[in-house]
Amino acid sequence: MFENLSERLSGVFDKLTSQGSLSEDDVKTALREVRVALLEADVSLPVARDFVKAVQERATGQAVTKSVTPGQQVVKIVHDELVNVLKGDTEDTELLKVDNPPAPILMVGLQGGGKTTTTAKLAKRLKEKQGKRVLMASLDVYRPAAMHQLEVLGQQIGVDTLPIVAGQKPADIAKRAKQQASMGGYDVYMLDTAGRLSIDDELMAEVEAVRDVTNPRETLLVVDGLTGQDAVNTAENFNDRIGISGVILTRMDGDGRGGAALSMRAVTGKPIKYVGLGEKMDAIEEFTPDRIAGRILGMGDIVALVEKAQETIEAEQAERMMKRFTKGQFNMNDMKMQLEQMLKMGGMEGLMGMMPGMGKMAKQVKDSGFEDKTIKRQIALIQSMTKRERANPALLQASRKKRIAKGAGLEVSELNKLLKMHRQMADMMKKMGKMGKGGMLKQAMKGMIGKGGPQGLEDMDPAKMAEATKALQGSMPRGMGLPGLGGGALPPGLSGFGKKK
Amino acid sequence: MSLFGKLKNRLLKTSSKLDEGLDAIVSEKSEDLGGEPSVDATAEQATPTVDIAEKPSVSPATNPVEPPKEAKPDAEKTPTIATPPVEGEAAEKPSLLGRVLGRKASTAGPRRVLDDEMLEQLEELLISTDMGVETSLRVTAAMAEGRFGQKLSSVEIKQLMAAEIARIMEPVATPMPLYQKTPQVILVVGVNGSGKTTTIGKLASQFRAAGKSVVIAAGDTFRAAAVEQLQVWGDRAGVPVLTAPEGSDPASLAFDAMTKAQESGADLLMIDTAGRLQNRADLMEELTKIVRVIQKKDPSAPHNTLLVLDATTGQNALNQVDAFQKLADVSGLVMTKLDGTARGGVLVSLADKYGLPIHAIGVGEQIDDLAPFDPKDFATALMGLED
């Protein structure tokens, strides 16, 4: 739906022939596009305006490196500046201040922003990662069953909740929570307030009362990552009235561009501490400026792709597969697993969509016939094989092939295609396996299994990314076998692949 | 009306910023006409007063749901609705004329020549209401047509833009259709936290008040305590709520609910669903399964599929409408949380691009905080026009 900023810019810069340095006019034209891109990503207008101004100053007169186009250069400057703003200058190593037990954490925000879910997620994190004893209390006396919701979530994650007493005022519940937390020896107590509008004086006064009673160590504003221009008002009002110490963006697993992140950061100057990435209780992560910056600019989210792979590939399974691969073994069972993996990760289109600059590619791939349906058919073919055949595809001669094709309701030619693909992949695996234990395969696999993500991704700048994308684009449509590489088909593994070749 | 009044009050509170912005834009390069006689100001004030008088007749419906069965009152309403725009134009004319003839009926205050730069600034102003770049461009362009080079005051600009916005919104302001078929199945979908459950509670209460027998199926079997929340709403509205244990298949609950609703002869069956982000393929698949299953009972069901949208959502609302329309065949929209600081410009953008009917808007947490959508009131409120 949205045009990718790099595409937008390349349109503008196609007309430009002069190279050397960015002239003022170049920058102006480019920045108009940047501004539109920011606005379409729901960055608030005043924030977008200031941001563009800052970029203009930085960009004018900058030398353009020969290897990149002026467009890429501008994208890089914009990207860097975005990261800059998102990061801020506060070098807060500590995510949450939860010393001096019992430390109160106050959660505030609009209705439907995800406060209750986030409260539970944070509590789980504090409990499991930092070994804290946490008590949760719901101060939401308005929404039906809100207190019950927190109670149920508490049971699910094994965190205590304050017993519900009907008819109490929020400030009284807060007092009770404080009391119970200090008596019960809790390290942290979290107060989940009702959703409220920042312009609702009565309700804002109520939070103020709660704040005064508990004097929270952290006051976290929970904001829907899909919020539009209103983000500024909300952030400003909450910060003015209550004084927030950080922001949590929820629903960042959606396909919103997350411009609210920039608005929040710029307006409040408060760090964005976490992002919520789903409905499961562990779907919360620390905020990483680089990723959001790329997302706001519509450059695809490579890191998200890698992490999605981590999610779906079970580490153990991957480990086992790696061992097999390094030995040069790759049979139909492995192949099936890889194909299924791809489907799980959202199919070809889903994968392509996450890679930068691959929007168009997705279509090409579709045209070339390699789509999800093909993958499903290939799985069907493998399923029609006997166990022995799967373990040792060399067994297959004409009669077996006929039987398998029939079983899958397909032609023998399709089976042949599959076998060819398998052979290519097996060869590849053997080669990679021979490269030794420190070889590329292992690195690629590490990328999937290890937490930190592969090296070089973090500091990958757009120019490099564009290069990698080119390499990808070059190799993808030709080698039909490549998508089937599964683990290896991830961009980090693949981009390295293209280069070394 | 009172509901819209509430909305308007809230909106006006925040649209003062819009006002400031607009005033700043206008005064930036205005020729100072501060010495304009105060008589003119009163003359201008008189024009909007006429507008107020018309308004009650424009929005007679207090219920967002107008049964087609009541064809007669509808027929009576139609002429009342049809007339005001004509009167509105008539009321506008003298001021236009007056402007040409020595600018008598204009507002006091600075005026500015409408030029490219100002257009761009106006466009930004609209963008800041979440209207999106494209639609903002269209609205400002339509406003500027034929007025380029004229000197306009901020009130005039607001009126012109409000008129253009109302024009875009007019076709989508339709109440939810009711059919003879019973039970009429209403499927309610949306992303997490958009206000589906609350909206169902409010709708059920209104249907109930209109003398319909309503059954609610609590299809959000995923979120903790969602079922309890809906039960409270059901109690408030006096409507039975069918439930299933947490974690069970919502499609099977929908099927059971269909069976029960058919047996009990209910007029309406409202099915709540769990919130889902539109890019989650697995969850969207679950939704299509619910539709498939209820179609086994009644091939024409669901008769209405309402998409509940959070008005504070930015441009992602377009993605949401797009995805839900493709997968769940959305028949209408309900916009919630319009009582916040969000001005809901995204509605204009949605109307412009998709033209899906907006059945109702949510303006608060109380059971009666659901109002029919009135394009004119919305447009004036959005632009921060006072009447």
TrEMBL record, chain A:
One of its GO terms (molecular function) is GTPase activity. Residues 478-501 are annotated as: Disordered. Its main location: membrane. It is a peripheral membrane protein. It catalyses: GTP + H2O = GDP + phosphate + H(+). Its EC number is 3.6.5.4. It is found in: Cell inner membrane; Cytoplasm. GTP binds at residues 109-116, 192-196, 250-253. It holds the Pfam family SRP54_N. One of its GO terms (cellular component) is signal recognition particle. Residues 271-284 form the SRP54-type proteins GTP-binding domain. Residues 481-490 have a biased composition (Gly residues). InterPro entries: AAA+_ATPase (IPR003593), P-loop_NTPase (IPR027417), Signal_recog_part_SRP54_M_sf (IPR036891), Signal_recog_particl_SRP54_hlx (IPR013822), Signal_recog_particle_SRP54_M (IPR004125), SRP (IPR004780), SRP54 (IPR022941), SRP54_GTPase_dom (IPR000897). Part of the signal recognition particle protein translocation system, which is composed of SRP and FtsY. SRP is a ribonucleoprotein composed of Ffh and a 4.5S RNA molecule. Involved in targeting and insertion of nascent membrane proteins into the cytoplasmic membrane. Binds to the hydrophobic signal sequence of the ribosome-nascent chain (RNC) as it emerges from the ribosomes. The SRP-RNC complex is then targeted to the cytoplasmic membrane where it interacts with the SRP receptor FtsY. Interaction with FtsY leads to the transfer of the RNC complex to the Sec translocase for insertion into the membrane, the hydrolysis of GTP by both Ffh and FtsY, and the dissociation of the SRP-FtsY complex into the individual components. This is Signal recognition particle protein. It comes from Pacificibacter maritimus.
Automatic annotation (TrEMBL), chain B:
The keyword S-adenosyl-L-methionine does not apply. This is Signal recognition particle receptor FtsY. GO terms for molecular function: GTP binding; GTPase activity; signal recognition particle binding. It comes from Pacificibacter maritimus. Involved in targeting and insertion of nascent membrane proteins into the cytoplasmic membrane. Acts as a receptor for the complex formed by the signal recognition particle (SRP) and the ribosome-nascent chain (RNC). Interaction with SRP-RNC leads to the transfer of the RNC complex to the Sec translocase for insertion into the membrane, the hydrolysis of GTP by both Ffh and FtsY, and the dissociation of the SRP-FtsY complex into the individual components. It is an enzyme of class 3 (hydrolase). Its main location: membrane. Residues 67-77 have a biased composition (Basic and acidic residues). SUPFAM superfamilies: Domain of the SRP/SRP receptor G-proteins (SSF47364), P-loop containing nucleoside triphosphate hydrolases (SSF52540). Part of the signal recognition particle protein translocation system, which is composed of SRP and FtsY. SRP is a ribonucleoprotein composed of Ffh and a 4.5S RNA molecule. Pfam families: SRP54 (PF00448), SRP54_N (PF02881). Signal peptide: none annotated. GTP binds at residues 190-197, 272-276, 336-339. It is a peripheral membrane protein. CDD domains: FtsY. Belongs to the GTP-binding SRP family. FtsY subfamily. Residues 28-92 are annotated as: Disordered. Residues 96-169 form the Signal recognition particle SRP54 helical bundle domain. The keyword Cytoplasm applies. Residues 183-384 form the SRP54-type proteins GTP-binding domain. Residues 182-340 form the AAA+ ATPase domain. Its EC number is 3.6.5.4. It catalyses: GTP + H2O = GDP + phosphate + H(+). GO terms for biological process: SRP-dependent cotranslational protein targeting to membrane. InterPro entries: AAA+_ATPase, P-loop_NTPase, Signal_recog_particl_SRP54_hlx, SR_rcpt_FtsY, SRP/SRP_N, SRP54_GTPase_dom, SRP54_N_sf. GO terms for cellular component: cytoplasm; plasma membrane.
